[in-house]
Amino acid sequence: MEISKIKKLVPIIAVLAVFAVTTVIFLFVRNNEVVMEGPQGSIAAGETNSAKWGIVYPVHWDSYQANLGNSENPSHFATKPYMEVIYAGTGFAAEFNEPRGHVYTIEDVRSIDPARQKSGASCFTCKSTQVPETIEKYGDQYYLMTFDEIKDQITEPIGCLDCHDPETMALRISRPALKEALERQGRDLNKITHQEMRSLVCAQCHVTYYFEPGTKKVTFPWDNGVSAREIMTYYDEKGFTEWAHPIAGSNLVKARHAEYETFMGSTHQSAGLACADCHMPYTMSGNTKISSHVWQSPLNNIEQSCTNCHRNGIEWLTNRVETIQTQVKDSQDLAGTAVVEAINELKTARESSGVDQAKLQEAMALHREAQWYLDYVMVTNGYGFHNPTETLNNLNTAIDKAHRAIAKAREARGAKAIDQ
Ligand code: HEC
Ligand code: HEC
Ligand code: HEC
Ligand code: HEC
Q1: Which end of the chain has fewer CB within 10 Å, C or N?
Q2: Which pTM does this prediction carry?
Q3: pLDDT digit string, tens, across residues 195-227
Q4: Domain span holding position 143
Q5: Is residue 37 part of a domain?
């Protein structure tokens, strides 16, 4: 090439070089600034691996990963020693830990005491993004599979797909049991408000349930309503019993983490709040404002969770929560002690010769109710904060029924009303 031609090309090469350098700098800088949230790629339909969603939503991914910091799960027995007697005959008497972060579900379910694995594949139902596709694959047969049959197939913890549609990011209900329960209540699933969805995504798992006899299908006992009383009536009408207490002989029902049910009808729920308002408040992650994806005690970030509505200050709020929880714990301890006493009285009555069988049955029925009302409170997280009045009302009922069970069991064996 002639020198003159090369000279002519210099400006063009220079322009190209500047363009290339600018492009590199532009891309480099972009990668280092806070990435604007919004679809930056597509997420495969049915993507169960949350890390893949994280590529598209890196700020949300960081927030989600912070759930690793919520790693404490002490045994319930440390603060509620009466639980071991109350749950005799179930796996819960062998091991029962408090919950921790969403990212730990697989680790926790796999390391559970073998006594708890009797419930089979159903144990995984609220633990993994892979559950809906697994239910689709096996149909209702899923619920009849054993723990071991399913355990190697399910490896992802709770994640994005549990609550979001990967295409639109809209909130969605992925669990059949919730859809079916709402449909049985006559709800049109297409007419659910966005604010209600901000609670219903949680109600997929933070609810009480039972295994339908025969099919072992996870079912929500909500046909009469979601209060402890309405659920007790539902079980009585169905003649449903989960287990017979080996010491007392009573036919009992087990409650599970009824956070959603307890919240319904509370001051906050009737004022229009949803779970996400306190548990997923807006928060700054770098320069981006997002709904926090760290599911934890709102007391850890009370400025974000409460003070945008309550101007009374952090100290007042913390005191209110602690006061409510202490009062609930005190009443719960009274109820726990009374139920254990009822169990012991039933044992004595059953071992007595000439016991009045009809009265013994009445005492057992009262124990069934006492156990249910106590359990509904005891295993529900939040120590009554979600609905203080309803919680104390349930504990009053539990204490009353337990004392009546004690009196009836004593009457059944002809003992004096009170030992002095
Ligand atoms: C337990 C349910 C749940 C899970 C799991 C979950 N989200 Fe969300 N997400 C929500 C709720 C509730 C909102 C608030 C939505 C609203 O009010 O519109 C939200 C909002 C969002 C938004 C909208 C912007 C914002 O911050 O409000 C994005 C994007 C998002 N989530 C991404 C993710 C990603 C990515 C994952 C997985 C790493 C994930 N979410 C996991 C419940 C969940
Ligand atoms: C797919 C089921 C599922 C969904 C959906 C779900 N959770 Fe959870 N959640 C769990 C399980 C299971 C645990 C306990 C995990 C463990 O201990 O391994 C848990 C733990 C928690 C904890 C931690 C409790 C503690 O003691 O630290 C909070 C808070 C919580 N969830 C709130 C929510 C909220 C709010 C929503 C809705 C926005 C929600 N969860 C949606 C199943 C779910
Ligand atoms: C008005 C605010 C508020 C709303 C709304 C709310 N919660 Fe809570 N939640 C709390 C407080 C406060 C606690 C007690 C935290 C503690 O004891 O450290 C709590 C505790 C919990 C816990 C146990 C967390 C822990 O670390 O002990 C779970 C799980 C939970 N809530 C789930 C839910 C679900 C599901 C909903 C919706 C049905 C909901 N909450 C609605 C404020 C709220
Ligand atoms: C979106 C607004 C909102 C948020 C967020 C909120 N609250 Fe409330 N709270 C209310 C409303 C509304 C009432 C009803 C009484 C009133 O109007 O002051 C109420 C009532 C209360 C009461 C008295 C009634 C009762 O049930 O005991 C307490 C205590 C309380 N809130 C604590 C909290 C705490 C703690 C948090 C954070 C974990 C919180 N609130 C978050 C709106 C909110």
Answers
A1: C
A2: 0.92
A3: 999 999 999 999 999 999 999 999 999 999 999
A4: 50-412
A5: no
